[in-house]
Specification:
The structure holds 2 protein chains of 2 kinds. In chain A, about 25% of the residues lie in helices and about 25% in strands. By secondary structure, chain A is α/β, with parallel strands linked by helices. Chain A folds into 2 domains: about 120 residues, no CATH class; about 40 residues, no CATH class. The longest helix of chain A is centred in the last third of the chain and has 15 residues. The N and C termini of chain A lie far apart (about 60 Å). Chain B contains 4 helices and 30 strands. Chain B is mainly beta. In chain B, the strands form 8 sheets. In chain B, strands 4, 5, 8, 9, 12, 13 and 16 form a 7-stranded mixed sheet that branches. The chains are: A alpha/beta, B mainly beta.
Chain lengths: ~180, ~450
């Protein structure tokens, strides 16, 4: 289920009901491209363009930038909510269409829009590199650590250990 | 030595041998007689001289009776010694008569008029179900052909059928038949057929190339029932269909001409048509390719290149020529980012309808008009790894923008979009009355599409 619906007549990217979080790349730009391929949706002026994404070194790429073109805007769904948009999204020809990427809802609703942008290079390596076995080992390393091994002063482990011993004393389970 | 016409060039016992016992007359390639041969009139004249001067020959009945100087009769039991002799006789025909004056054999002299190359091999056909036979010599023809034999001399009668062909690679094909010279039934005389060929500049690929694309995908089919084809909105009947396999008009012509030189069945359908004796199907006049009416009906070319549509003239079953309304061609060229994108598609919209109804049905609106090709199919499709697409446009008849927009240049906006490698791209252009309209679609490389 896509997060947005495109209205080529009104040049609107309408956020679907209940959607409060949008990733510009995945939820808007990529979905728009798929929508354009359907039927004769290409008869409408394009909604977006993009730059960036070029590889730099290793797994890094230049941060992608997206531009709303030809007057296309985003309209949040009809309801009070906060819409979080992540990605570098701007308006093309802002002198004509204004700087706002969002237009008001049709009804009287209070919508806060948080736009998270970055100019940092993006790491595009897929996955964290942590395997399932790594996670198991980490859990085992924490849960199976003996209290005697926790000796370093000021650590979280030492704090938990001391608190547990205090509780045990308090309830009379040990010395 | 050229063709002999002077009896003095024939020497008794050397180049002409009289066998009174046979009784036969033999011609031998010797002395002044070469394979160029001797006119039958010259032989007749030589026989007269020999009969007059030779004490032995005069004892025997004279061998020949003249009807004209190109028509003779072998009489009094005389005959030629054999076919070697018969094929040295030029410019005339003869009949072999029995004692009652009835023909046992009849030979017609076949002479070709016009220029054909010295090495060009002409051939003839004496019945529709028969096989073609090469003339004895290459080059212009002057040879006797046996057209009748009674039950004891071959038992056939081909006097009402003779077709002469000359089909040579990279030359125009020559053909002539009895009706071309106003003859219904052959007699034993000389006949002159107009046969001439010349260099054919449209043939540029040799026979070996016929196994390669696009020729390898072409075909020829003779249908027993009429095949309808839509030309300019009207259906016309054809009985012979050439599948052009997207070859150019020249390539289609090359393919068909190649087929017509084959001694095998060239009908890719259920029927049988031997190439060498099948009538011509196509002809170029300048750069325009005409299909010809054949015995079975009209000839149509399927799967031709859109770019050629304005230089194709089809002859239908009624013998009338049919042409498409002018069809312009728009060539879309794609950059690598679209070519390499399996999802990439293109669309061709009219930029506006100003030249027609001017209803504001412009590109960029919900009423934008997706243009149709000449077959009334929308101009859109997958790019499918191609570097270009050729799109036809019915320049004279397309009225999508309104009736007044026909035969008027069409402004178009072409868009394309891929997914993984091709970004959106748009380019404008004009479809003019031309087959050279071109628009390039070069999309930026896509780096930011995600389908996770």
């Amino acid at each position: 289920m896509d997060s947005v619906t495109f209205d080529g007549v009104e040049n609107l990217i309408i956020v679907n009901n209940g959607v409060v979080s949008l990733d510009v790349k995945a939820d808007i730009y990529s979905v728009w491209k798929q929508w354009m391929r359907e039927g004769t949706n290409t008869k409408f002026l394009p909604a977006l363009r993009t730059v960036g994404g070029d590889p730099t070194t290793g797994v890094n790429t230049v941060a992608p930038y997206f531009f709303l073109t030809n007057g296309w805007k985003i309209r949040p769904y009809e309801g009070n909510h906060t819409l979080n948009i992540s990605g570098n999204l701007f308006v093309d020809e802002s002198e004509i269409y204004g700087n706002n990427i969002v237009v008001p809802t049709l009804g009287s609703f209070q919508v806060l829009v948080n736009l998270s942008t970055t100019s940092d290079a993006t790491v595009v390596a897929t996955g964290s590199g942590v395997t399932t076995q790594d996670k198991t080992d980490i859990i085992d390393g924490v849960m199976n650590k003996s209290l005697e091994e926790i000796t370093e002063s000021g650590t979280f482990g030492e704090h938990v250990k001391n608190e547990l011993l205090t509780i045990k004393k308090f309830i009379g389970l040990s010395e | 030595m050229a063709l002999l016409t002077d009896p003095d060039d024939l020497v008794d016992g050397v180049s002409i041998i009289i066998d009174t016992a046979g009784p036969t007359i033999e011609l031998v390639v010797a002395g002044n007689l070469t394979t160029e041969g001797v006119t039958i009139k010259c032989v007749y004249s030589k026989l007269k001289e020999l009969w007059k001067d030779n004490a032995d020959y005069i004892k025997y009945p004279f061998p020949m009776g003249p009807i004209t100087d190109e028509q003779f009769e072998m009489i009094n039991g005389w005959d030629w010694d054999g076919d070697v002799t018969r094929y040295l006789l030029r410019t005339g025909g003869w009949a072999l008569k029995d004692a009652s004056g009835v023909s046992q054999e009849e030979w017609a002299g076949v002479i070709t008029l016009g220029t054909i190359g010295a090495d060009d091999q002409a051939y003839f056909l004496q019945s529709s179900g028969g096989s073609v036979v090469n003339f004895q010599l290459t080059g212009p023809v002057n040879q006797a052909v046996k057209v009748y034999g009674d039950v004891s001399h071959g038992n056939f009668d081909y006097r009402d059928y003779l077709k002469v062909y000359c089909r040579i690679y990279q030359k125009t094909y020559a053909f002539s038949q009895l009706s071309d010279i106003g003859v219904i039934t052959l007699s034993y005389q000389a006949y002159r057929f107009p046969i001439a060929n010349a260099a054919d500049a449209k043939i540029t690929h040799n026979d070996a190339a016929m196994t390669d694309s696009p020729y390898s995908g072409m075909s020829l089919i003779w249908f027993t029932s009429a095949q309808q084809r839509d030309i300019g909105g009207n259906n016309y009947d054809f009985h012979v269909i050439v599948d052009g396999n997207q070859g150019t008009a020249e390539q289609v012509y090359e393919f068909v001409q190649y087929k017509l030189r084959q001694a095998t069945d060239i009908d890719d359908g259920a029927g049988t048509h031997i190439g060498k004796k099948t009538g011509s199907l196509l002809r170029f006049v300048g750069d325009t390719l005409y299909t010809l009416a054949v015995a079975e009906g009209g000839v149509f070319i399927d799967d031709y290149q859109d770019a050629d549509i304005n230089r194709l003239v089809f002859t239908d079953d009624t013998g009338n020529t049919r042409t498409f309304p002018y069809t312009a061609v728009l060539t879309l060229s794609y950059g690598d980012n679209l070519k390499n994108d399996a999802d990439a598609k293109y669309w061709v919209y009219f930029t506006n309808d100003d030249a027609g109804d001017n209803l504001g049905y412009d590109y960029g609106t919900s009423n934008a008009i997706l243009a149709w090709n000449a077959s009334n199919v929308s101009m859109t499709g997958l790019i499918s790894g191609n570097t270009s697409s050729q799109l036809s446009y019915a320049f004279d008849t397309n009225s999508q923008r309104g009736i007044s927009s026909t035969a008027v240049e069409a402004p178009v906006t072409t868009v394309a979009i891929g997914l993984n490698t091709g970004q959106f791209v748009k380019a404008t252009g004009i479809i003019a009355r031309s087959v050279s309209n071109a628009i390039s679609l070069v999309a930026p490389l896509e780096r930011n599409y995600s389908n996770e």
